[in-house]
Design brief:
The chain has five helices and five strands. It has helices spanning 22-32, 37-45, 51-73, 124-140, 144-172, and strands at 10-18, 82-91, 95-100, 106-111, 114-122. Strands 1-5-2 form a three-stranded antiparallel β-sheet. 21% of the residues are buried.
Length: 173
């Protein structure tokens, strides 16, 4: 549970060793931070950067992880209520390479890699509503025995009322 919010469902996905510069990936990540998951997917779909497809794949994975976590907990999750709560790009290991240079020398260059982390979570109000609905449903069906007991009491109450009505009619006659 993040930020101490009880009942809030979260999902996280990590893409590691992605062959793109962290600086270039951060440009795309900054576009989706704090947005609704659905809006973030639309933004990534139409972003003209090569890394946008990888970020979109990571975001879809985070959404699927949140759905799976909700299913495992036996709760219902509204995907429209998911927000991108946190996303960051960390630097991965660099690939050191040599480029031939004049007169037998070599110029060294580095191919950079990135680790992308995307977190999605349910909006706080949606989580509260879902938890309240689940509690009300649990209260309504507190078990078969409780439901049967309530039904028997209702039937007995109707039977007593019917007997009272018959007694009143007999007294009038």
């Amino acid at each position: 549970m993040a930020n101490g919010t009880q009942g809030q469902i979260e999902g996280e996905a990590i893409t590691r060793f992605l062959r793109v510069s962290p600086q270039k990936a951060r440009l795309v990540i900054d576009l989706i931070r704090g947005h609704r998951a659905e809006d973030a997917l639309q933004t990534l779909r139409f972003t003209k950067k090569r890394v946008a497809k990888d970020v979109e794949k990571t975001l879809r994975s985070a959404i699927a992880n949140a759905e799976r976590k909700a299913d495992d907990a036996g709760e219902s999750l509204d995907v429209d209520a998911l927000y991108v709560t946190g996303c960051c790009v960390n630097e991965g290991p660099r690939w050191k390479r040599m480029r031939p240079a004049p007169m037998g020398r070599g110029f060294r260059y580095q191919k950079r890699t990135s680790h992308i982390v995307v977190r999605v979570a349910e909006h706080a109000r949606a989580a509260e509503g879902r938890v309240a609905a689940a509690a009300a449903e649990a209260e309504a069906s507190k078990g078969v025995r409780g439901a049967v007991r309530k039904a028997r009491k209702a039937i007995e109450k109707r039977a007593k009322e019917a007997q009272k009505q018959q007694q009143k009619q007999q007294k009038k006659q």
